[in-house]
């Protein structure tokens, strides 16, 4: 098990290396460099050249790339062109917000999706089943940012139940340790700060959860329906086991296998999908920052972000593989 | 290989295989699938919705009461007030005094165009790659397998990229425009089509009738074109229907991020929705109408696609 | 009184807009304590559905109707509520299924799958249950049971899996064991082992066994009483020896005639039943077998044939039964006597009476019956 994890983490290195080359070439083909973003359409050619020189963009691409790699080994992703701050610092400040948001969304999606999908399968053809199938269809078809706006308009602007933007009420003056606001609040025993941060997560969490929730409901339902027809469930029934044991031990556990896989896929997608939700709720996570970075041609930020996404993707994959091997003995980690 | 990517691929491949296995029954498959479709209420709802959508987008622009880009009532727009539904403007005005109804109808055509073109791009490129890989892997021997391997590694890379991120990067390279959106959204669906067609073709290549044709001395390119490809199309067509739905939604997301249509004279639902966000307090209908349009259309494509998949699924057929 | 008395069980699947399917249409048979009873027939004749109906294991679906009675030890199983039925299942009546791989939960170790029965019905927990489970595995012939308990189904061979399933079934020493094609999915050599195991188990514990099979070889080797099913009804019931020696129902005759035999004369051909089990006449309109029957007469169609009770408790459902050997023989009917494959069965003293008027019987060297594997598809 330990060797498996180490080997998988070592595999990450060539992946990242290859990815960095690809991205380096790709991103430098973006039309209009950062000098256009900084100066706009005005600016003399001399000013442009000066900016490019300051940023090191006038050197040969190979030299630029070598510098990038040397920095990256020291976990130094460079300086953001638009905010003039270290990319690593920016990320350490913003990434926790996105992670909190993603976790919230996945908790909502899994916490509701699996039970709902299971119940829909058990009550196949009844009202609950039709409602959850119909609901999940709509969940897939509704644009996330529109749902986010609707939620914001109804629950925060009209009803005032939830805050409409940000990650935490700044007037609380909460202490920052890890930049995971909820975690910070718990660590410093500032309970109101933790609760407030949690409160800020709910609406964007629901919006972000809509698609994974819909998909988890559908996959769970289909999977339970398939497992209910399996011979081993009939065997369990033939043994006279109580309904409870049959459901928990034999039906649910086997139905979870495809769900676990889909959860992995969805989590990887969510981190980048957070871009839309964070923009609507002015939630200072990485998504909104990256959306800004695209229009600013902020290469170091974009490079760093895509690298991080790749790392996260590999890590999520690893976690899924590990949990899969825990649930299904036929898949052995080697 | 990791479980996630393997499962993702397996799922696509299995779909391909399932539908392909069935194709051995030949023409009657389509007839039977069509018969089953007609009995499925979801399919009928989906088809009716899409029928209306297509009619509106084809005929509508010729019948609209006003030009969609004309700011005929500009003077009536005040800060915090946009005139709503009234006799001469069935859906009210938009934020700079244009007729919302005309914009919706003309926007339907643009939305359909974006969805169809994006899907066509994905379908064409994906099918080309998948078709070559499938033919090479199924019939081509050692060289064929090498070609297949190279193509599939490329496809796997695309498949591993989060789709929105991929679309954003493409849109960032090409600059904001409707064409960009089509290309970006189409590119995202390329790997799905490629794997689907390849999987179906490999399943077909392993079937007995191909063996029979080979043993009768039919030449390989002829087998591929005359037998394998036509019999592998079912899952691809189903996927194309489903992709139309996601394409429309993803196009809206790109418009929302400001990477979409930058030509204000051509209304398109995604852009209208993005523009309307700022006025959601004073004129929520400006956002709700295009959003409903997107949702209902996507729902129509999804319902029809799912029903088609069900109709073609041998497991559900007795 | 019989241990299990099945009376007129019927199972109907009704679908909206389609004609109802009578999967089982009035099956009756009985099982005495400690007896081995066979339910024989082609696939689709309703034998598995009957057993699932008795166990209450038919998948719940709208349009499913189960009628009739299945009286086990004085209680009608079909009238029981879900909880009491669960109490009986696994404790008093246990069941073994056809495919041992899919019948075992792939993600749970064998040990838990055995102990969960012990926990449920015998209140055993922890080490006690584990020890008993190991003893059970040992009893069904699984070597190194302690290690096997920790293994998963995919780590066991096909025969071992079926042994494990049998261990779970006999864990509570049930009074009735229903085996639904327990050897069909196994290799021929393993089949024989499993059948021997089942035979030993029921003899040692006095468990009654209902053997569901399409394999006449299995029936000949094991069952004392045999019920032949066709189209969802029992068409003939007889003790083993009379059934093989003098089958009366033309369907039984046809089944026996479809079995290839080593001792058949050179050039002699098999006598398969024409048509397939789908060519079915609804029982209300006459004999379901009539469309395929070589002895069909006018009386076969119109109303269902009555059950004819013959001597020594055998019965058949036919208006024009095959004649008894030694009496007048119809020239066109398959000769039943030629199909007597059980000549050297377990030697219960019936061999003497077998040899009298059957030309092919009593050959001492003919050995165990060859297992006919595909006879259901003529």
From TrEMBL, chain A:
Presence of keyword Transport: yes
Annotated membrane topology: Multi-pass membrane protein
Keyword GTP-binding in annotation: no
Domain ABC transmembrane type-1: 95-324
TM ranges: 9-27, 101-121, 133-155, 197-217, 256-289, 301-324
Key words of the record: Cell membrane, Membrane, Transmembrane, Transmembrane helix, Transport
Intracellular or extracellular location(s): Cell membrane
InterPro entries, sorted: BPD_transp_1_N (IPR045621), MetI-like (IPR000515), MetI-like_sf (IPR035906)
One BP annotation, GO: transmembrane transport
Signal peptide extent: none
Gene Ontology CC terms: plasma membrane
Pfam families, per the entry: BPD_transp_1, BPD_transp_1_N
Record Gene3D superfamilies: MetI-like
Family under the similarity heading: Belongs to the binding-protein-dependent transport system permease family.
Protein name as it appears in the record: Peptide ABC transporter permease
Organism (species): Micromonospora craterilacus
Automatic annotation (TrEMBL), chain B:
Coiled coil: none
Sequence ranges assigned to domain ABC transmembrane type-1 in this UniProt record: 108-305
Keywords, in A-Z order: Cell membrane, Membrane, Transmembrane, Transmembrane helix, Transport
Topology of this chain in the membrane: Multi-pass membrane protein
GO cellular component, one term: plasma membrane
Principal localisation: membrane
Upper lineage: Bacteria, Bacillati, Actinomycetota, Actinomycetes, Micromonosporales
Family, per entry: Belongs to the binding-protein-dependent transport system permease family.
Domain of life the protein comes from: Bacteria
Gene Ontology BP terms: transmembrane transport
InterPro entries: BP-dependent_transpt_permease, MetI-like, MetI-like_sf, OppC_N
Protein name, entry field: ABC transporter permease
């Amino acid at each position: 098990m330990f060797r498996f994890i180490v080997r998988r983490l070592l595999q990450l290195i060539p992946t990242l290396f290859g990815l960095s080359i690809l991205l380096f070439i790709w991103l430098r083909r973006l039309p209009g460099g950062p000098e256009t973003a900084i100066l706009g359409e005005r600016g003399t050619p001399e000013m442009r050249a000066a900016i490019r020189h300051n940023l090191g963009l006038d050197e040969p691409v190979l030299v630029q790339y070598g510098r990038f790699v040397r920095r990256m080994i020291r976990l130094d992703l460079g300086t953001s062109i638009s905010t003039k701050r270290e990319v690593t610092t920016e990320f350490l400040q913003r990434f926790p917000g996105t992670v909190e948001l993603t976790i919230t969304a996945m908790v909502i999606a899994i916490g509701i999706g699996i039970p709902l999908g299971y119940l829909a399968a058990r009550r196949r053809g009844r009202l609950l089943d039709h409602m959850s199938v119909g609901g999940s269809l709509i969940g897939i078809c509704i644009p996330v940012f529109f749902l986010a706006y609707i939620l914001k308009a109804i629950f925060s602007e009209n009803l005032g139940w939830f805050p409409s933007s940000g990650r935490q009420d700044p007037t609380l003056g909460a202490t920052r340790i890890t930049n995971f606001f909820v975690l910070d609040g718990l660590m410093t025993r500032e309970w109101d700060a933790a609760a407030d941060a949690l409160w800020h997560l709910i609406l964007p969490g629901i919006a972000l959860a809509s698609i994974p929730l819909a998909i988890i409901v559908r996959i769970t339902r289909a999977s339970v329906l398939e497992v209910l027809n399996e011979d081993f469930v009939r065997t369990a029934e033939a043994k006279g086991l109580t309904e409870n044991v049959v459901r928990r031990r034999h039906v649910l556990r086997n139905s979870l296998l495809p769900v676990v896989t889909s959860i992995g896929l969805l989590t990887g997608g969510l981190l980048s999908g957070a871009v839309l939700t964070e923009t609507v709720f002015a939630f200072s996570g990485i998504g909104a920052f990256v959306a800004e970075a695209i229009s600013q041609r902020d290469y170091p930020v974009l490079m760093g972000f895509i690298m991080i996404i790749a790392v996260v993707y590999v890590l999520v994959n690893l976690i899924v593989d590990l949990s899969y091997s825990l649930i299904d003995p036929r898949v052995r980690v080697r | 290989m990791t479980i996630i990517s393997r499962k993702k691929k397996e799922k696509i491949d299995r779909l391909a295989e399932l539908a392909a296995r069935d194709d051995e029954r030949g023409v009657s498959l389509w007839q039977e699938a069509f018969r089953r479709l007609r009995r499925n209420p979801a399919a009928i709802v989906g088809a009716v919705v899409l029928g209306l959508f297509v009619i509106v987008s084809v005929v509508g622009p010729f019948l609209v009461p006003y030009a969609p880009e004309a700011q005929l009532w500009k003077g009536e727009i005040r800060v915090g007030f946009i005139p709503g539904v009234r006799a001469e403007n069935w859906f009210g005005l938009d934020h700079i005094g244009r007729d919302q109804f005309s914009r919706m109808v003309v926007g339907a055509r643009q939305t359909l165009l974006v969805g169809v073109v994006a899907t066509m791009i994905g379908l064409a490129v994906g099918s080309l790659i998948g078709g070559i890989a499938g033919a090479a892997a199924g019939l081509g021997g050692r060289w064929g397998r090498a070609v297949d391997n190279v193509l599939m590694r490329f496809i796997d890379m695309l498949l591993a990229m989060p789709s929105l991120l991929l679309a954003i990067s493409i849109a960032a390279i090409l600059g904001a425009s409707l064409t960009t959106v089509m290309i970006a959204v189409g590119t995202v669906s390329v790997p799905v089509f490629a794997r689907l067609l390849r999987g179906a073709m490999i399943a077909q290549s392993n079937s007995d009738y191909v063996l029979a044709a080979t043993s009768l001395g039919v030449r390989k390119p002829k087998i591929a074109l005359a037998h394998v490809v036509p019999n592998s199309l079912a899952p691809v067509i189903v996927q194309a229907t489903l992709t139309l739905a996601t394409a429309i939604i993803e196009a809206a997301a790109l418009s929302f991020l400001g990477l979409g249509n930058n030509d204000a004279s051509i209304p398109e639902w995604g852009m209208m929705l993005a523009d309307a966000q700022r006025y959601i307090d004073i004129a929520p209908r400006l956002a709700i109408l295009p959003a409903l349009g997107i949702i209902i259309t996507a729902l129509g494509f999804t319902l029809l696609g799912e029903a088609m998949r069900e109709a073609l699924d041998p497991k559900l057929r007795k | 009184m019989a241990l299990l008395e099945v009376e007129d069980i019927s199972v109907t699947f009704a679908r909206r807009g389609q004609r109802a399917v009578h999967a089982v249409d009035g099956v009756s048979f009985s099982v005495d304590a400690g007896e081995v009873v066979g339910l024989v027939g082609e696939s689709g004749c309703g034998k598995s559905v009957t057993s699932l109906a008795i166990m209450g294991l038919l998948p719940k679906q709208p349009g499913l109707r189960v009628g009739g009675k299945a009286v086990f030890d004085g209680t009608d199983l079909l009238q029981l509520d879900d909880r009491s039925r669960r109490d009986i299942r696994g404790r008093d009546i246990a069941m073994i299924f056809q495919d041992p791989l899919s019948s075992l939960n792939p993600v749970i170790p064998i040990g838990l799958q055995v102990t969960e029965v012990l926990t449920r019905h015998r209140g055993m927990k922890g080490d006690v249950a584990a020890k008993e489970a190991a003893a059970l595995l040992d009893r069904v012939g699984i070597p190194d049971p302690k290690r096997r308990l920790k293994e998963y189904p995919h780590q066991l061979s096909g025969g071992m899996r079926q042994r494990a399933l049998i261990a779970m079934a006999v864990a509570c020493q049930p009074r009735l064991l229903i085996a639904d094609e327990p050897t069909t999915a196994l290799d021929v050599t393993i089949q024989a082992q499993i059948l021997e195991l089942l035979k030993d188990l029921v003899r040692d514990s006095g468990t009654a066994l209902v053997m569901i099979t399409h394999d006449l070889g299995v029936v000949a080797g094991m069952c004392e009483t045999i019920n032949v099913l066709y189209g969802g009804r029992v068409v003939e019931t007889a003790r083993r020896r009379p059934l093989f020696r003098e089958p009366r129902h033309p369907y039984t005759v046809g089944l026996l005639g479809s079995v290839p035999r080593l001792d058949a004369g050179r050039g002699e051909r098999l006598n398969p039943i024409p048509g397939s089990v789908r060519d079915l006449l609804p029982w209300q309109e006459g004999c379901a077998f009539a469309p395929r029957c070589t002895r069909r007469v006018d009386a076969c169609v119109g109303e269902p044939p009555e059950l004819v009770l013959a001597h020594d408790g055998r019965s058949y459902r036919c208006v024009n039964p095959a004649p008894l050997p030694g009496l007048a023989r119809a020239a066109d009917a398959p000769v039943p006597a030629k199909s007597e494959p059980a000549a050297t069965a377990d030697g219960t003293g019936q061999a003497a009476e077998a040899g009298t008027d059957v030309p092919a019987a009593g050959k001492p060297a003919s050995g165990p019956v060859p297992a006919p594997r595909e006879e259901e598809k003529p």
